[in-house]
Design brief:
The complex is a heterodimer of chains A (about 110) and B (about 375). With about 110 residues, chain A is an alpha/beta fold. Chain A is about 40% helix and about 20% strand. Chain A has one domain: 3-Layer(aba) Sandwich (Rossmann fold). Chain A is built from five helices and five strands; from the N terminus they run βαβαβαβαβα. In chain A, strand 4, helix 4 and strand 5 form a beta-alpha-beta unit. Classes of the chains: A alpha/beta (about 110), B alpha+beta (about 375).
Chain lengths: ~110, ~375
């Protein structure tokens, strides 16, 4: 299984990947949704961590698309926005598991 | 029967919107038209033969004899042929601003002076409303800016802080695995604790700001842009700037907090007007186009564009190159847009040759029905 991280902030993406690799996961980082699409779609055993604010195709759109795959991966949204703002973003769809920034190891490990 | 010229004069005086008063060399009123009757509350009969001072507040009335005398003696013109903003006085004692122009005519009956009086109360009221509206805009922007500054800083600090905590936690794991260096682990732990402390401060700040989450409702984009243009151009001199508003009426409604978005648009339009101030071609353009579930509002200008070295930090707090500002305008604008699930981006060399700012905002979406599952990035993006 692979953990895919779609995060435009290089510091956040790199540090998150480093920590997850330390824990023992295989990790790929993408700066935006477009470059994520260039790769093979994730399988059901994979996890995709998506920052909701991305340049271009938004994190919300990416999560919607991933959630509608026949065998969707596990989805974790990360965001600095408020819970209410995020619920608004997802409208009728069920918002995914959400981690708010700043992230901590405990909260991450609990989800993986 | 009055003569033709008398009748004509009578009709001119009666229909004139401005007040017309004619006086003789001794400042006695000879003629007082309908508009004057309304303006001053006297009938023509009442004032005919009286000194024009009756129409003036005490300070002018006091000095008027001197003015007339001085003119007759020296021929030195203080008001004749010039026109001035002065005050008149109604019969009930109310003073009001008027614009007074005075002409002179030599007649067989001696010199006569013709005063034309325009009531300035309405114009003054408009000027006052304008000043009030601007003051309100300034204070609204300030209060909201404080709020938004908190949000912007919280957002800006959150990213590096997240990275710091994750790096430290990764370092701790690495140290723990390889070396069992307890001293180093202790130091890293302390580092993590301090980073957590900082993050708690940010969370408190964020909770405070979150009380003011956007109050979204459907908003007509063309009306919103129109209002913003009006607010910005109100009072400031931008007559030499060609403002092209191409936002159509038939676009879907935005799902936004109109007050917050107005703040962004006002900020962007102001920046655009500033950017073209010294430019040879002064043009500011605004367009809007729906793209999927978003609306893209583009504000372009024909100014100098954004220097390449500034682009990477343009939206960062306190990085502004503009004099006399904290450089928070764009940071705040972007944070508002992102709080709405949208974004704000810059094209350093946009359509008009200068910069183009693209504001992406969500539109009101109809209830979803299972659409084709293509990756959103490949579904004919128009952005």
């Amino acid at each position: 299984m692979t953990i895919h991280i779609v995060e435009d902030d290089p510091g956040v993406g790199d540090s998150l990947a480093m920590l997850l690799r330390e824990i023992g996961h295989q990790v790929e980082v993408y700066p935006d949704a477009e470059s994520f699409f260039e790769h093979t779609p994730p399988g059901p055993q994979d996890t995709v961590i998506v920052d909701l604010v991305l340049p271009g195709v938004s994190g919300v759109q990416l999560i919607r698309w991933l959630a509608r795959l026949a065998t969707p991966p596990r989805l974790i949204a990360i965001s600095g926005q408020s819970r209410r703002a995020i619920d608004d973003l997802f409208g009728n769809d069920l918002p995914p598991v959400l981690l708010r920034k700043p992230l901590t190891e405990e909260s991450l490990v609990a989800l993986l | 029967m009055p003569s033709v010229s008398e009748a004509r004069l009578e009709s001119v005086l009666g229909t004139a919107v401005d007040g017309i008063v004619v006086m003789d060399e001794r400042a006695r009123i000879l003629l007082f038209n309908k508009a004057c009757e309304t303006l001053f509350g006297y009938s023509a009969e009442e004032v005919r033969g009286r000194n024009v001072k009756v129409l003036m507040p005490a300070d002018y009335a006091h000095a008027h004899d001197g003015y007339v005398h001085n003119y007759l003696e020296t021929g030195e013109k203080r008001i004749i042929g010039i026109g001035r903003e002065v005050r008149g006085m109604h019969r009930d004692g109310t003073e009001f601003p008027i614009e007074l122009s005075v002409g002179e005519a030599a007649t067989p009956e001696g010199r006569q002076f013709i005063g034309i009086i325009r009531d300035l109360r309405q114009r003054k009221a408009v000027e006052r409303r304008l000043a009030e509206a601007q003051a309100q805009l300034v204070s609204m922007t300030r209060i909201s800016a404080l709020d938004e500054m908190g949000a912007a800083i919280a957002h800006e600090l959150n990213q590096p802080l997240t990275a710091i905590m994750l790096y430290l936690q990764a370092a701790k794991r690495k140290v723990g695995d390889d070396h069992r260096d307890t001293k180093l682990i202790e130091i890293v732990d302390k580092g993590v604790r301090e980073a957590e402390r900082a993050s708690q401060i940010i969370q408190r700040m964020r909770r405070f700001v979150e009380k003011r989450d956007p109050e979204r409702r459907p908003v007509c984009v063309s009306r919103l842009v129109g209002e913003c243009l009006e607010l910005v151009t109100l009072g400031i001199d931008c007559r030499d700037v060609e403002i092209v508003n191409e936002v159509g009426e038939d676009l879907p409604d935005l799902s936004v907090d109109p007050v917050q978005i107005q703040q962004i648009l006002v900020n962007l339009i102001r920046n655009a007007l500033d950017a073209v101030r010294q430019a040879p071609v002064k043009r500011v353009g605004i367009t809007a186009a729906a793209a999927g579930e978003d609306m893209l509002i583009r504000i372009t200008d024909s100014g100098g564009g954004v220097p390449a070295e500034v682009v990477p930090t343009l939206f960062r707090a306190f990085s502004g190159a503009k004099k006399g500002g904290l450089g928070l305008g764009l940071t705040i604008s972007r944070s508002i847009a992102q709080n709405h699930g949208g974004d704000l981006a810059v094209e350093p060399n946009g359509g008009e040759g200068g910069a183009a700012f693209v504001l992406r905002l969500p539109v009101v979406t109809p209830p979803r029905d299972g659409q084709a599952d293509a990756p959103p990035g490949r579904r004919g993006q128009t952005a």
